[in-house]
Structures are given as C-alpha cells and as structure tokens.
Amino acid sequence: MIADYFWKIIFTAFVIVGFIYWKDWRNQGKEYEANVAVIAELLDHSANAKPVDDDEAESRTFQSIYLLHKIEEHKGEKFSIDKIFEEAQEDSNNTKVVNNLLRDAFRQNYKKAKEYGLLENESAMSSLMDGTSTSIISGPWKGEELAVGYYISPNINNTISLHLANRLLLPQSVKLAMQFADITIDVKERADRLKRAGILDVGSYDSIKQQYDTLRELSTRNN
Questions:
Q1: Which of 80, 117, 174, 194 would staple 138 via disulfide (CB 3.0–4.6 Å)?
Q2: What's the rounded Cα separation, in Å, for the pair 101 and 87?
Q3: Domain ranges in the chain?
C-alpha cells in the first residue's frame, strides 16, 4: 500500500514536471514564431508597407537586429539566419529573390552588431528594441554613434535609399565618408543583384554601370 502510494507520488511529480517543460517549450515556440512574423512585417517592402522615410528605414533595421538576437538567445547553437528568413517567407509579401537579398544584408548587419559589442550590452539592446541608435560598445569605433548607411549611396542613386537590402550598420563617420565614395566594383555588383531582384530599375542600373565603366576607363588611361 505504501509502495503504491509512493509510486503514485513519483508518477504525479513526473507528470507535473513534464507538463511544465512542455508548456515552456510550447511558449518558446510561440515566441519564436511571433518574432519571425514581426521580422517579416518589418522587412515588408510591398507598396503599402515599405518604409516611408529614412527614420523608419533605420528604425526597422535596428528592431530587426534586436529580434534576431532574441531568437538567437532561444535557439542557441541552432540559431540560423537562413532558417529564419526561410520561415519568414511564409508571412512575407516580398518575393523570394528580394528576401534573399534582405537575408544577406541582415547576415552582414548582425555580424557587425556583434563586432560592435551591441548584443551583449543591455543599454544598446534596449535602444535597438525601441528602433533608435546607440553608441558602439567595442572595437576601433568604440563610443561613436551607430548609423545605418548604404551599399549604394543616395548620391549615386536615390531610388533605393529606403530599401533595407541596401542598408548596412556603420559608424556615423564612415556613413558620412561613404556619401562621397566613387562607384567601385562592389557597388556595381550590388546594383546588379538589386536590378535582378527588381528593386533597382534597369535605367538606374545602366546609369551606375556607365559611371563605373567611365571611372574605370579614366583610371586605365591615367595608369
């Protein structure tokens, strides 16, 4: 009788513990799905959902970095930006080609956020959660304001300045310096990818390519 009662207690305890773990696992799954859905919403570039100004583009970039980190905290070693964007595609109004460009941009941005020491700093993460800038915490640019620059500067082409596939985390001074940068091979190749994704129109791409070819020809002559 006592033994039966003892095993009933043990069984009940296992059931309770199992239920608690299951509930926690389910809640984490729901939180993950919710974060992925919010990322899909933040990166939505359909006609009625895309950023309307630079402040909104920057805010969405910061908040996306925050959400990626929240997902990494839950997933640990299983964290995968590829997987996140693959699942976000289900809730996205973007084409897969556009989402692939966004994925690549945010892989780079998330890497930069780590290099700048943002993800381990509570104050910095709070700012990113609010969609606002913060100071760079570590590295050569420590103490400088974080900015959201461009792969292709508006001075080169201003039709894609608000698209998050064209934005990257930078120190403020680097962002300012890049406004006057020449068109490099990296810029031309980025423009080609943006054109193939339908983000950059053909006329704008042709203009960038022509400027690049002209600069390259002048450089060759000078040498």
A1: 117
A2: 15
A3: 2-132
Pick from 21, 45, 25: nearest CA to 33: 25
User: What value does the mean pLDDT of the chain take?
Assistant: 86
Residue identified by tokens 């095993």 is: 7
Q: Under a CB-based contact definition with an 8 Å cutoff, are residues 68 and 105 in contact?
A: no
Q: Rounded to whole angstroms, how far apart are CA atoms 41 and 24?
A: 26
Determine contact, residues 60/52, Cβ cutoff 8 Å: no
How many other CB atoms sit within 10 Å of the CB of residue 113?
A: 24
Q: What is the pLDDT of residue 4?
A: 55
Angle, CA of 26, 29 and 34, to the nearest 5° = 125
Measured in degrees and rounded to the nearest 5, phi and psi for residue 50 equal: -70, 160
Residue 7 confidence (pLDDT) above 60: no
Residue 1, pLDDT above cutoff 60 = no
Q: What is the pTM of this model?
A: 0.83
Count of all residues that appear for the chain in the document:
223
pLDDT at 26: 47
In 3D, which of 79, 84, 61, 31 has the Cα closest to residue 164? Answer: 61
The span from the CA of 12 to the CA of 19, in Å, is 10
Query: What band does 211 get if pLDDT is binned at 50, 70 and 90?
Result: confident
